């Protein structure tokens, strides 16, 4: 597949962030010509860790800025657009719901409109989310055919709304589009401590109490996907579109449920080999929250499977964190 990507012009929105930076590195390694749009500069972002700044074109700006986006498209045609830019932090969607919806929905529409107006519409791969399906309490894997569900915050609905707009542009204007739905991605470069693995590593490095607050009692069971597997998933989806594929959405994950308490215990072992008892102070008032995606379709159609085990992924993440964040 290396030859298929060599020389291809790719736009990665949100490419300076956690997931985007790993996709950018994979594209650069395989010979693609990459442009990144991000509203945050590279300094201090995960892309800086990759060491590929000199091999990409970086545009600093907000995707809601229509003239800026159109100017980027006027300068060069793109073969593939990977739309990862979003506000993915759940707590933001509770504190500032309107801003998160505006960021996640309007930026998607602005970008799609630029693609529609291009001389040749590029392949469009949208970073959706397992949050599309809403809250879930069954251990059974969720297929792509499952309808979007209600959620306790505005992040999932904002991604579902954006995905519907992607579908609408694809159908109305015959644009090649698809959506990638992921669950709980983790890995090197993620510094946002509202998420489980970065919070665990920050506490371990800081020598503070291994405390995960009152949002959960530790029993929630989720699927955790390594970021390198996610990068391959995006590219597999684009390759599918390039060969005439028309599937509108794919689930990606390991298909395995692991409790958040178990993950926290494994992070501790990965960090320094020391077992620790994580403190989860939440009080469960209903059934255990459980959520995993049915990934059989991605395996059958794309030939994609997650190849990084949870322990191997946590070991790589802990090694990165020890090198990047000195212990207290």
UniProtKB/TrEMBL annotation:
InterPro entries in the record: Epimerase_deHydtase, NAD(P)-bd_dom_sf
Record protein name field: CDP-glucose 4,6-dehydratase/UDP-glucose 4-epimerase
Family: Belongs to the NAD(P)-dependent epimerase/dehydratase family.
Gene3D superfamilies xref list: NAD(P)-binding Rossmann-like Domain, UDP-galactose 4-epimerase, domain 1
Upper classification of the organism: Bacteria, Bacillati, Actinomycetota, Actinomycetes, Micrococcales
Pfam families associated with the record: Epimerase
NAD-dependent epimerase/dehydratase domain: residues covered: 11-253
SUPFAM superfamilies the record matches: NAD(P)-binding Rossmann-fold domains
């Amino acid at each position: 597949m290396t030859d298929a990507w060599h020389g291809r012009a790719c736009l990665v929105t949100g490419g300076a962030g956690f997931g985007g930076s790993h996709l950018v590195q994979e594209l650069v390694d395989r010979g693609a010509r990459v442009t990144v749009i991000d509203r945050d500069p590279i300094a201090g972002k995960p892309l800086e860790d990759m060491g590929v700044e000199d091999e990409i074109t970086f545009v600093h700006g907000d995707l809601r800025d229509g003239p800026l986006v159109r100017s980027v498209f006027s300068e060069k045609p793109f073969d593939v657009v990977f739309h990862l830019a979003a506000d993915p932090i759940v707590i933001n969607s509770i504190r500032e719901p309107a801003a998160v919806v505006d960021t996640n929905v309007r930026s998607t529409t602005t970008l799609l409109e630029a693609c529609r107006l291009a001389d040749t519409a590029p392949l469009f791969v949208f970073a959706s989310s397992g949050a599309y399906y809403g809250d879930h309490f069954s251990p059974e894997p969720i297929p792509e055919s499952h309808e979007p569900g209600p959620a306790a915050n505005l992040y999932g609905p904002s991604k579902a709304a954006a995905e519907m707009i992607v579908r609408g542009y694809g159908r109305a204007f015959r644009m090649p589009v698809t959506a990638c739905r992921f669950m709980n991605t983790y890995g090197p470069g993620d510094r946002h401590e509202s998420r489980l693995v970065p919070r665990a590593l920050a506490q371990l490095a800081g020598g503070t109490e291994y405390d995960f607050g009152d949002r959960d009692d530790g029993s929630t069971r989720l699927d955790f996907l390594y970021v390198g597997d996610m990068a391959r998933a995006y590219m597999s989806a684009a390759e599918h579109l390039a060969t005439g594929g028309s599937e509108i959405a794919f689930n990606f994950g390991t298909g395995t449920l692991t409790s958040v308490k178990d993950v926290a215990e494994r992070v501790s072992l990965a960090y320094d080999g020391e077992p620790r008892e994580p403190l989860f102070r939440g009080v469960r008032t209903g059934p255990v929250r459980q959520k995993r995606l049915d990934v059989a379709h991605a395996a059958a159609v794309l030939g994609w499977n997650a190849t990084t085990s949870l322990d191997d992924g946590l070991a790589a993440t802990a090694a990165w964190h020890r090198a990047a964040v000195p212990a207290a």
